[in-house]
Amino acid sequence: MRRLDFFMSSTLSNMHAVVAACSLPIPSHHWSFQVDNLSSHGLLQISLTSNLQECQAFVEEFEGALGKGKGRKLYAYKVMMAKKMIKFNRDFDNFKTACIPWERKIKEVESHFGSSVASYFIFLRWMYGLNLVLFAFMFGLVVLPEVMMGLPYGSIPRKTVPRAEQDRAMDISVLLDFGGYCKYSILFYGFYNDERTIGVLQFRLPLSYLLVGVGIFGYSLMVVIRTMARNSDEGGDGGDDGQFTFAFKMFTSWDYLIGNPETADNKYASITTSFKESIVDEQENQKDENIHLRRFLRVLANFLILCSLGGSGFLIYFVVKRSQEFANLDQDDLSWFEKNEVEFVMSLLGLVCPPLFETIAELEEYHPRIALKWQLGRIFALFLGNLYTFLFALFDEVNAKLEKEKSIRNATIWGLNEYYSNYSSYHNTTDIPPPDIHPADVIRGPCWETAVGIEFVKLTVSDIQVTYMTILIGDFLRAMIVRFLNYCWCWDLEAGFPSYGEFDISGNVLGLIFNQGMIWMGAFYAPGLVGLNVLRLLTSMYYQCWAVMSCNVPHERVFKASKSNNFYMGLLLLVLFLSLLPVVYTIMTLPPSFDCGPFSGREQMYNVVMETIENDLPAFIGNIFTYATNPGLILPAVLLMVLAIYYLNATSKNYQNANLELKKKMQMVNEHDHLNCCLSSLK
User: SS in 3 state form for 409-429?
Assistant: First the structure.
């Protein structure tokens, strides 16, 4: 205690000396301590301990700079290593940024066209990563085991081109329609064998096919929801919420570390585009409008768009029904258009309707960001309606194929029974060998799963062709005409018709989402479709980046993209759910083909799971699975999930309202402080 009192007294005297030297008028009661009071010794010891720790830390940090000899050299070495570590971390962060695929291309697009156009390419990059993982699942667990451990081509009928089709199996026209050797390859469902185990590893291919087909949806759902949760932290709709927006942009936008002239040009263009975005937001906030006229025009626009949606759905249903009639005719008598009428009409509707919707949307005069969301929703309804109309008509064809397959199966069974009875009676034996028939000569059913897969692949290829031709003709050729004929034309081609094209954000985004929906639905019937989509997305990134930088101009009303991409993700989540329904209906309801695919010979596709549980797993796991699939447990679980979702949604809305109230209070306090500063300056 004596040592503590001595240290206190010396510390107080030093403090008073410092204060006196600095001539600071500090009251003496700030330094008075109740040393005699025993209850204050504990607090005093804690305070002195913290002060001592701060002093020790200060001395340890700077004693090398104040010392001599080895201590000073060691300190200099520590400072040098700390600076090198800071530089290494900065360079490593730059390296990680450079390793992000197409980051520089997207930044260049953003600097010239704004964040709204760049958001499409960010979404395209995200879709490429998702499909790359899906391709790894499908190729590693389905395609590769069949190629490495399955039976070779020509060994069984499902892996052999029929004798009647072999003469034209390699014709270009047949291969472009995915017939011939393409139809009997690893691209489609019918090629895969139905044996429970294959190869020396005893790989369960049918079980793997089913689990991968369903696991694609599960993994996609997990990734989409996780991305939406991450984006929700950013929040906001893209508008400028703070005050003094233009002052901040004017004085704090430039990056003084830029040393590359090209980077400086991109930064200059980015700042200019950012000012345009903020000006549009400010103009929309101050705009006055006739509300009654605006409501009438918006109702009229929605009525016209609903009529267009209904007409497109009817046209697709009519074309699919007509294609089913063509399927019963001789294919040699049909023209190219009649063979590909469905794909042509669906691609043409996807090409014509979005510009029509955009023209009708001019009546509504929404903010560009809101107008984009309406346009996305309408094109989404168009694509989704067209796709489901196509599916309904396609399942009518599937039912017809099932009836035909049933008759062929019955005839095959009758023929085998006749062969066995005749052979047994003629040779008077029960050891009957199988019929000696070449695989190419075996009568087989239509294999409706492969037919569905071919339709999805043809739709995807047709969509790729239309998209690329639209860019080549509608953007590149148009830009060439405007660029080189503008000097010798009657009017200004750049300012008037046709002018340079603008990048269609809504059409391209919905094209990606619609294409991904086809991939999710078609991957179960055509495992090679995922790989085809990976190539499509890879080429689209380079092709569209080149097109937008060389052929397009920024929008007349540049607007800021939403801070969160959850609107895109919400549409993608809805497409994922709607794509799951036809696949689940196929697995649980429709019988598989009897002579093709990994589920042939079973009543339902999901029976492969029950076979695995019964033959390869302990009995109690089968009991658990039976209890878990009991409707008495499923319905309460679903009800509990719905209630949990409702509760979380209500809680989220309450948090949002609380955040809005806090923002209002902070803004009021800021305005009050600003007013007080003004009044004090006037005094």
Answer: HHHHHHHHHHHHHHHHHHHCC
